[in-house]
Model the fold of this input.
Amino acid sequence: MKCLIVSDLHYNLKKYDFVLSAAEHVDLVVLAGDFLEISLYIDRKAQAVVVQNYFRRIREKAPLLICSGNHDLDQRNAAGEMCSRWVDRMRLYNVHTDGDSIVVDDTLFSMCLWWDGEAGKKKIEEQLRKGHEMRPDRWVWVHHAPPAGSPTSWNGKRSYGDQELHDWIETWQPDLVFCGHVHQAPFVANGSWIDRIGKTVVFNGGHQLGALPSYILLDTKTSQVYWRGQPGTRCANLGEPLLTAQDWAEDVPEWVFAMCRLEARHLA
Ligand SMILES: [Fe+2]
Done:
């Protein structure tokens, strides 16, 4: 299964256009939060309408899994905690979102909400406990914030990671966790787009300026994973120690080249 993983689009419509085009070349699209941008002069309700439309169009091309980020919160729930109702509503359009756990091929994906307090944290714990009970060969989490103490949460000055997520990873040891939130992590010294905590591999594709998002491509059949960003391409094999991660592989598959060509067309 060929997967495209992106986070932190922050209402950059050029970046959404790229994801929409790229969706044709993959079997699954994962968007790990921060769809909207709180600092823009455009009302976030209006932003959400535009983004929901992108989600529907992406969903027409490939299954779409999403989770909320801190820029996506739109109202308080019964517990008095901020939540992303507009993200929840995407379920109506067959987009899998916060609180869902679904099996695609042989992989269980659990999409976690952006937790704002104890009630949100409990919801995630319950979701992960249930996921653990039905766990197939491969279990993947989608959670906006990366884990504390990981290079995927290092912004060049300090760690902005989530200690709860780190503890949940240690408890349940999922196979993969897709995150975002700390934009700088793949671009700064001592940061990274990939990390291993026990048997779990954690990803943060990061966020870069311009019309193209930085993003991750994963082929679950070959276990080969690629990160694309302004500094170039990095790759790793999930079955090998991450220390062997290279700048570029010798035998790059055609679908990854197709993405590179798509980037060039997108910028033309
Ligand atoms: Fe962000």
Summary: The chain is about 25% helix and 20% strand. The mean pLDDT is 95.
